[in-house]
Design goal:
44% helix; six-stranded parallel beta sheet; globular
Length: 226
């Protein structure tokens, strides 16, 4: 089994679809852009928000920064709780903890929000390390988040071979697999999140789980399944 497991949050531990898409919709409206189709906004789940506002709605850097402020206007009091833990996740985390695995969260979401979500759903107790980005935009790249999580776990200095054999990064988007590859970790994707069809395969995930139960099996046995 893996000795260290780093988990993404949105789309991996919790289904945050409603909260994120409604907050993006709210931010766009405040910017004068009406977008009635929440499905179209699921692409915002995973990458840094300002990057997505620029990529998908053609905003310049300053407008994107303002849009993120509008997003957080609704997210802080409402959107953060329009969320739910995927069925089986608490049981998986408990099983991994009881087996001696060290668990961490490595998310591009601002760390203050990550901790609030974990506490709200009473799963923060399973994690020895929780790392997210800064509200000021610092440490927003997945590679930077993973690096800090490895540092706090005390395994940043392991050799590449040791990291790959002992540590897995688990997530639902290509960015999570990129973060794993940057630090030579085993990249485990999950199909129940928000990745587009073929996204995880194209990024070269070492293993892909279709359900939380399959993910638990992969992490407890250390067996890589395509």
């Amino acid at each position: 089994m893996y000795q260290y497991c780093l988990f993404d949050l949105d789309g991996t531990l919790t289904d945050s679809r409603e909260g994120i898409t409604k907050c993006v919709q709210y931010a766009l409206a405040k910017c004068g852009i009406e977008e009635p189709d929440l499905k179209k906004l699921e692409c915002f789940i995973g990458p840094p928000l300002h990057t997505s506002f620029q990529k998908y709605y053609g905003m310049d850097r300053d407008m994107a920064k303002r849009a993120v402020e509008f997003y957080r206007e609704r997210f802080r009091p409402i959107g953060i709780f329009e969320n739910q833990v995927y069925e089986g996740v608490p049981e998986m985390l408990q099983a991994l903890s009881e087996s001696g695995c060290h668990l961490a969260v490595a998310s591009s979401k601002p760390e203050v929000f990550v901790k609030k979500v974990l506490d709200h759903f009473d799963i923060e107790k399973y994690f020895s390390v929780v790392v997210g980005s800064g509200l000021d935009g610092s440490r927003e790249k997945k590679e930077e988040v993973v690096e800090e999580a490895l540092r706090q776990l005390g395994i940043l200095e392991l050799s590449e071979e040791e990291r790959r054999e002992s540590c897995a990064m688990i997530g639902d988007r290509e960015f999570d697999i990129q973060g794993a590859r940057a630090w030579k970790l085993t990249g485990v994707g999950v199909h129940y999140g928000f990745a587009a069809e073929g996204e995880l395969e194209a990024e070269g995930a070492d293993a892909i789980a279709g359900t939380v139960e399959e993910l638990k099996e992969i992490l407890l046995t250390g067996q890589v399944k395509g």
